[in-house]
Specification:
90 residues; mainly alpha; elongated
Amino acid sequence: MTDRTPYQDAIIRRYYENLDQTAAQRGLDLVSDLYLATGKKRNSLWKRAAAVLTNLGIKQEVIDSVIESDSPERLLKVLQQNEEKPQVKK
């Protein structure tokens, strides 16, 4: 057993409850960064974008298509479509 207080348990629970929203926000931040980035930095950001999309449960075919397109607009569109899906509470 861990020695966490009920307050700490509540913080941890809320963190995991909002993990999807946090990942989506990270993706939106990456869109902004991709517009401004070039070279190696842009490649690094696309790798991070792929990780975010994977964490959001986006199909691998869609992820590959977005990364291949090298289009921040396409990434934004996929993120917006994911946001519009009804979220199922576990």
